[in-house]
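Give me structure tokens for this 639-residue protein.
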Amino acid sequence: MFRIKKLDLFISRQFLLLFVATFFVCQFVLMMQFLWRYVDELIGKGLSMDVMAQFFWYMSLMLVPQALPLAILLSSLITFGNLGESSELTAIKAAGISLMQAFRSLVVLSLLIMAGSFYFQNVVGPDANMSFTQLLLSMKQKSPELEIPEGIFYDGIPNTNLYVQKKDARTGMLYGMMIYRLSGSYEDAAIIVADSGMLQSTAEKKHLVLTLYNGEWFENMRSQNISGSAAVPYRHETFASKKIVLDFDADFNMADAGALSNNARGKSLAQIRHDVDSIDEKFDSLGYHYYNDAKVIYFHHRPLPAKDSLRALQMAATKSFNIDTVFNRLSPEQKQRTMTEALSRVKMAVADTEFKALITSDGDKVIRQHNIEAINKFTLAFSCLLFFFIGAPLGAIIRKGGLGIPVIISVLVFIVYYIFDNAGYRMARGGMWAVWFGKGIATAVLAPVAVFFTYKANNDSVVFNMDLYRNVVRKMLGLRLKRNVVAKEVVIETPHYADDAVALNRITQETEAYAHAHKLLRMPNPVKVFFKYAPDHEIERISEEMELVIDDLSNTRDRLILTELNHYPVVSVKAHTRPFERKWMNIVAAVVVPVGLFLYLRMWRFRLRLMKDLRTIRQTNEAIVGRIAQMEEERRARQ
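Here you go.
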């Protein structure tokens, strides 16, 4: 019988607290990013607080399914990072509880969140998306709030350009005004200049009343009533005071939602299925009609006029005829008329085909959009579980809590997911990829990553051990650690100076013989390197003897010897002989020319470095042997 344990409650409590906090953080970040796309639709419109509240409310509802996976990723990573950092995860494993057993309570919670995400996308999300789209369309149609600038022409009033030289913000008076009425009608084709004026809105906010003082009105006389009169080219009026009514709807009106019938994001899964069937039936019938038209045009002869029947019968009676011969028999006027008619028919056929292609392509785009949204409801919900199996194992591996490394890793994982998902969506929407492939590529890429991290975390892998990767990079680039020998505070065994001096002299002779025999200055033979490799254990033996002497002499109290010991290089005993241990890998490296060339030059570099290291070893040996001899003389002198 399934029983909830205290450990499950403990981990679930920590996860839920972090999940709630990270969810609101992720929701806020996504809202700010989403708001940046529509900031131009909000600025300068004079929208009321209730309209802005609706805008942010519908926006937050739309972004909930996107914030849930990111919140699960971050909260699960921090939860198990905190457990690992405080050694609680180690205690859990020491008690015989595997990592997958520790995951089980959060797996259940992730499944519940995944189900809630799907329900939200299928029930709440469509209504919120439809309301948000309708509200956004209404915002776009609303006229901007009237704010007349100084020194530039203002075109925020329909069919009017207004120039104000100076304005008084306290009284609302405008000075040095010039108005261009841009409409082509008789009443509006005018230029108005005034010393001052005032602009006020009517009570219903449907019009503006422009009161002008001490000005002139110049108007073009383009009315049909006086179109033939040349004596009165324009009308000139001087006025002391004049009022003009301008159309300006400053009120906010909700747009008709009928234009949003093809908005796939505003539909549930059942509505998408029903609408796709309807659209398929509609465009199938339309395509069948286009096909019948094409058969009549391209595969059947049209009925010929009566006067052309005899000519058609004559042509049919002959087995074959040359079109050029028939065309050359026509008169120049008939040729010109025939070419014009043929060109006209071709243009009409091309235009008709392009129009039909536009209609069918629009239908295909609508169907693809509906299928994308249907699949997106599943993939976005499944990403909740997917992100958990990425975040929780990563937290158990890196064992770092807080908001430092977990936030960085979460952002990187989410960026990778977003890039693949967005690229797949665009390719599927454009018809370049299949819908299922475009919307499933992000999940297909991250699912193996989740399995890999879960496997590594369950087996206590060191996949994120930076020292391991640092050593691999150091070996590839030929870097090495610097020897660091320091004086020991407590010396248990005194060095055997005499034996060490004999060993160092022997090592000096062996290094000279090795350098002379192998000719390290020359370039290595590529055939022997990649295809006929013979192991070289001599330098390994010399290096082992040298390390034994260094280990024995590190117990000394003499500072000069300690200083000389740090001059010994850390010898690479295999890199100068062949690229890899296995023969087949060397052969593959030779076949792949760029890789083989890099490895060959790298090996030659190691040979030159080994030659330099052997020279340094001989010089250091001589210095240490000389110091040991000096110490022996000093000891004898004291005796």
